[in-house]
Amino acid sequence: MTQIFVLAEHRRQKLRDATWEAVEAGRKLAADLGGDLTCILLTDKAGGMADDLAKECPKVLVVEDPAFDNFNSDAAIKTLRAILQDKAPFMLVMGNSNSMMDLAPGLSVALDAALATDCFALEVQDGKPLAFRQMYSYKVNAKVSFKDAERIVVTLRGGAFSFNPTGAAGGAVEKIASPTAGEAARKRFLNYVEAEKGDVDIASADIIVSLGRGIGDEPDMEIFESLADAMGGVLACSRPIVDKNLLPKYHQVGTSGVEVKPKVYLALGISGAFQHVGGIKGSPLIVAVNKDARAPIFRVAQYGIVGNLNDVVPALEEKIKEIKG
Amino acid sequence: MDIIVCLKWVPDTSEADLAIAGGAKDIEKDDLDYDINDWDRFAVEEAVQIKEKVGGKVTVVSVAPEDAEEMLRESLARGADEAFHLWDDAFEESDGFAVARILAKFIKDRPFDLILTGTLADDDCTGQVGGMLAAMLGVPGAVLVSAIEPADGKVKFKKELEGGLYEAVEMDLPSHLAVATGLNEPRFVSIRAVRKVASMEIPILDMEALGLEESQVGSAGSKIEVEEVAMPPEGEGAEIIGGGAEEAAARLAEILKEKGGIG
Ligand SMILES: Cc1cc2nc3c(=O)[nH]c(=O)nc-3n(C[C@H](O)[C@H](O)[C@H](O)COP(=O)(O)OP(=O)(O)OC[C@H]3O[C@@H](n4cnc5c(N)ncnc54)[C@H](O)[C@@H]3O)c2cc1C
Ligand SMILES: Nc1ncnc2c1ncn2[C@@H]1O[C@H](COP(=O)(O)O)[C@@H](O)[C@H]1O
Questions:
Q1: Residue A196: band (very low, low, confident or very high) from pLDDT cuts 50, 70, 90
Q2: pLDDT above 80 for B236
Q3: A305, A212, A273: which is closest to B256 by C-alpha?
Q4: pLDDT per residue as tens digits for the range A74-103
Q5: Band of residue A277 on the pLDDT scale cut at 50, 70, 90
């Protein structure tokens, strides 16, 4: 019987959404594989978090240790290894957040487990788990199996497993002594560095013209500024544009940038990776111009033009100016 | 500072028209252009910049077929001091775990203060090799790292969290850092610089030279297996506005006007 473990993630004494999504995935796996579901909480102070988890999860295992006042992958690998090493067969489920990206690969080695990261779906076929994830610039879906592994770690794509709270699990909370108490971690959290604020706030903009790598290596930014002006909107962008210092970081839309909720989002030369699209909230009208008809952005857009920006952008500005008269 | 940088040779799939290969276990790769993984270009640059500041040696290494020599040589031209090419036909179909094991075997007996990798590779999109390698070598690590400052047996850096938030972290050396894109500006390499390193030897180490066995590499040494790949279902998708650029732009302008996209 495969035991299912979910690793809770929290920041500043608050459970993060990824935790609940992992609980949802864990419940389904427990049902399909006929195992028990246990949620593991590593923290300096459980506070109300353990009780909140117990409402949704039949068993909550809590380790309180000052090493976990902020997430620390070095300490977490050692502690989770101590907890899980003799629990096989098991599956450990967690979010694919930026913090867990520090943890999961190293942990899988420490546990001698098979790992699938960033899974958007999980299934059980003939008693064996299968993971679904994306490859090749996020343009191809892959079905992945774990051979005969009895130890499996999976991380989940944010937003792919929507959580249905029941509030009725009535779970038991068990506190265990930290197996690694007093051990000095080789990695130390110093402080948070908040996002830089700029002269425009794209989070509150109604009309956004967003630029991606498709604008080329040495683009003439005036063309896009003037299109945004004609539309009465602001410029935003994908990550590579910030990486190339073409626009400051506070223009970046996405999971590691700004969440926007405009009425209209015009994506120019953006492929539509989920970390980008994940930053577009609400249900704006998304319009995309891209030369690749298969670009994932066309799957979230309502309207698209398959074509070259060099031709489409000047023509579009001209037509908009005509309309405005 | 002795720095080892791990480089991946990947097909450029972001703009290519992809097709599923026969057997549906992979995509057709014959017609794709290969290049250094985007994140890894930043890793090489970072290593060279650290060396330029504090001294030391930069070693680049890749588990990749023959063509990847070009990437290794270009890295020498960027300022790396030595390059190693790990390849054997038996390495084909290695998953991230098996690749990490090959790299670990190569690194184990070499002195290093820092291992740099990219955070994620654009082909498998897993982001696992760096962290696995670190665990195999018994050193701590972090991904999505920028503002790297090594000093006195430690390294300080910024790690990217979600929503523009970062954390400042300190870690003991030796350790592993997977860089974030944009942490530096990779330098331009001239043809002259590449020519200067044209005669430098890039040793190719095969399975035997590395002391590995058939069961530890390739699909036998892998922990996961891709059963099937498929293009995502078309779904609803966008309504594609046809016609030439002029015509399409005119129609799009109308739509924008109608939906409040012209303020
Ligand atoms: C942890 C993590 C966090 C991330 N956070 C973010 C984030 O917050 N925001 C973000 O954007 N990304 C983020 N990324 C990166 C993300 O995965 C993608 O790499 C990125 O969004 C791609 O940007 P792009 O679409 O501009 O470039 P590409 O994917 O390279 O796409 C360029 C597109 O332009 C098209 N094109 C090229 N030339 C032309 C032309 N002349 N005319 C028309 N079309 C053209 C191409 O067909 C292609 O579709 C993150 C990644 C990770 C791992
Ligand atoms: N075959 C390889 N050879 C050398 N380094 C690699 C290889 N595969 C992955 N890496 C490194 O690991 C990082 C993450 O890759 P991946 O785990 O494949 O997403 C890359 O950016 C590289 O730095």
A1: confident
A2: no
A3: A305
A4: 999 999 999 999 999 999 999 999 999 999
A5: very high
Contact A231 B96 (CB under 8 A): no
Which residues lie below 8 Å from residue B166, measured CB to CB, with a gap of 6+?
A192, A193, B158, B159, B160
What predicted TM-score, i.e. pTM, was given to this entire model?
0.96
For residue B54, what are the CA distances in angstroms to A108, A144, B43, B150, B248? 34, 44, 17, 9, 55
3-state secondary structure of B255: helix
Sheet holding A172-176, edge to edge: A114-119, A151-156, A90-95, A3-7, A37-43, A59-64, A172-176
* Peptide bond before residue B232 is cis, with ω within 30 degrees of 0: no
Share of chain A above pLDDT 70, in %: 100
Is the pLDDT score of B82 beyond 90? yes
Q: How far apart (Å, rounded) are the C-alpha atoms in residues B170 and B179?
A: 15
Tell whether B182 is within 8 A of chain A (Cβ): yes
Radius of gyration, alpha carbons of chain B: 21
| CB contacts, 8 Å: B236 with chain A | 299
Tally Cβ neighbours within 10 Å of residue B52.
Answer: 11
- DSSP for B136-161 reads HHT--EEEEEEEEEEETTEEEEEEE-
The burial class, CB within 10 Å (0-12 / 13-18 / 19+), for B166 is buried
Average confidence (pLDDT) over A12-29: 97
Tens digit of each residue's pLDDT (9 = 90 or more) over B136-192: 999 999 999 999 999 999 999 999 999 899 999 999 999 999 999 999 999 999 989
Interface ipTM: 0.96
Give per-residue burial for B223-248: e unless 16+ CB within 10 Å, then b.
bbebebbeeeeeeeebeebeeebeeb
Average confidence (pLDDT) over A3-22 = 97
Of chain A, the end-to-end C-alpha distance in Å amounts to 71
Crossing angle for the helix pair B38-54 and B69-78, to the nearest 10 degrees: 30
Amino acid at A135: M
- Is there a contact between B182 and A130 if contact means CB atoms under 8 Å apart? no
Q: What is the mean pLDDT of chain A?
A: 96
C-alpha A285: how far from chain center: 23
- Cα distances from A243 to residues A210, A213, B186, B258, in angstroms, run 15, 10, 10, 35
Nearest to B143 by CA among B161, B132, B162, B159: B159
Question: Across residues B229-250, what is the average pLDDT?
Answer: 89
Pocket of ligand 2 (CB under 6 A): B 6-8, 37, 39-40, 43, 62-64, 96, 99, 103, 117-118, 120-121, 124, 126-130
Comparing C-alpha atoms, which of A269, A309, A267 is closest to residue A286? A267
Query: Tokens at residue A95, please?
Result: 């979010």
**Contact with chain A for residue B230, Cβ under 8 A:** yes
CA distance A230 to A156: 41
pLDDT at B234 over 80: no
